[in-house]
């Protein structure tokens, strides 16, 4: 997820914990505890992304692909990160240190939100198509939720609106509301969000303002409602993902009964459970071929035709009325070529520890989850230029997402 989402989620959860605890008797300790819990949960919710500092360990683009969402995004990595965050807070914040020495409730809550914030970060990153490998080193396979777009305004509005109302300074409140309203509006104007989704977000925001405005200092209605809205959205998306994947798989087997469908990465659209993009990975071992396709679908074409789905899907273009699914692009390749490259080119081999939908065109490899080969993206590797070069340094031992295509199963 984007760091704005991680931040508002961490701050909202910190505030919810603070309002759920018995109040401190001393006003100074009460203010310190609130600041401490909000800061700790906010910092923990962003802390794993410090692995961006490790991207220089390997040459581009491998540094980003293999070291971001790496060791800090594992369950084993949560404890040392929590220990580091809490130690720094203890050493650098005298007021927090005095509070923690004298308040068992503050100590327990601070440790709890640190661990919770770190786990929440990993869980939220799991929700999108990029994925994580949380059980490394015991299981180094990538895991993908495919449920939520990596920049999701639902979380901004559901958890950020109560925080905006709670802001004590008018300028801070104004800036937060401008961000919460302006961000979704910007995405809508540029075609990444439908106007119906924007209306739904504004209605949710209005409800949360009404629940929080004028409430008592420890009112939790807006925070709990926002949390429920976020969880409900994830649950709806989870059901929709399965429906989308089943629809695509059914269409593939009808098109080519001899194909083996290996994977269907589903590409979420912001704040929209009806529209989805997808990529398919198929193989035909008898012919020694594999195929990648990319398309778009609508789970309710009578309400939202696939041609009306946001342009984030890559521009579905023309589709007949009532069409639920359209194919946008496909690529055919030889399994032998893919396996030969993985064996002979160590840069390509390292890249395959990330790639879930590997496309090979003109000496470059691109993961088409993030765009078509004609539009290079952050995943694109020019493997032809690396042929014969010294092997890349510091390649983590993540599992190959396409071990099936590489014949490693």
TrEMBL record:
Keyword flag Transmembrane: yes
Domain of life: Bacteria
A Pfam family: YdjM
Keywords recorded for this protein, A-Z: Hydrolase, Membrane, Transmembrane, Transmembrane helix
Positions of transmembrane segments: 74-93, 105-124, 144-164, 171-187, 193-211, 223-241
Gene Ontology MF: a single term: hydrolase activity
InterPro entries reported for this sequence: Transcription_regulator, YdjM-like
Name by which UniProt lists this protein: Metal-dependent hydrolase
Organism: Massilia horti
């Amino acid at each position: 997820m984007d760091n704005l989402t991680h931040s508002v989620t961490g701050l909202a959860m910190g505030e919810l914990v603070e309002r759920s605890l018995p109040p401190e008797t001393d006003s100074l300790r009460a203010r310190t505890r609130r600041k401490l819990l909000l800061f700790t949960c906010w910092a923990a919710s962003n802390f794993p992304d410090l692995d961006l500092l490790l991207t220089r360990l390997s040459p581009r683009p491998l540094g980003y692909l293999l070291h971001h969402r790496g060791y800090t995004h594992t369950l084993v990595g949560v404890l040392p990160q929590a220990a580091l965050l809490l130690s720094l807070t203890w050493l650098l914040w005298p007021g927090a240190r005095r509070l923690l020495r004298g308040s068992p409730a503050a100590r327990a809550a601070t440790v709890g939100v640190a661990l919770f914030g770190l786990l929440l970060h990993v869980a939220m990153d799991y929700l999108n198509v990029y994925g994580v490998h949380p059980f490394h080193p015991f299981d180094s396979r990538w895991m993908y939720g495919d449920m939520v777009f990596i920049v999701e305004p639902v979380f901004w509005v559901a958890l950020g609106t109560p925080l905006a109302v709670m802001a004590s300074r008018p300028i801070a409140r104004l800036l937060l509301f401008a961000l919460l309203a302006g961000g979704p509006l910007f995405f809508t104007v540029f075609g990444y969000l439908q106007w119906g989704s924007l209306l739904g977000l504004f209605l949710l925001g209005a409800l949360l303002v009404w629940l929080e405005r004028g409430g008592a200092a420890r009112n939790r209605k807006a925070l709990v409602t926002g949390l429920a809205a976020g969880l409900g959205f994830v649950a709806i998306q989870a059901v929709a993902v399965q429906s989308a994947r089943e629809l695509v798989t059914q269409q593939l087997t009808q098109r080519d009964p001899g194909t083996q469908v290996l994977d269907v990465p589903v590409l979420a659209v912001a704040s929209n459970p009806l529209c989805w993009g997808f990529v398919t990975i198929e193989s035909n071992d008898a012919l020694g071929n594999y195929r990648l396709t990319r398309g778009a679908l609508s789970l309710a074409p009578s309400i939202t035709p696939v041609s009306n789905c946001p342009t984030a899907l890559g521009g579905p273009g023309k589709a007949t009325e009532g069409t639920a699914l359209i194919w946008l692009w496909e690529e055919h390749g030889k399994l032998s070529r893919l396996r030969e490259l993985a064996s002979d080119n160590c840069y390509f081999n390292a890249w395959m520890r990330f790639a879930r939908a590997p496309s090979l065109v003109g000496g470059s490899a691109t993961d088409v989850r993030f765009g078509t080969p004609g539009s290079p993206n952050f995943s694109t590797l020019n493997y032809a230029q690396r042929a014969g070069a010294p092997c890349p340094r510091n390649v983590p031992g993540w599992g190959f997402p396409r071990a099936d295509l590489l014949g490693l199963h």
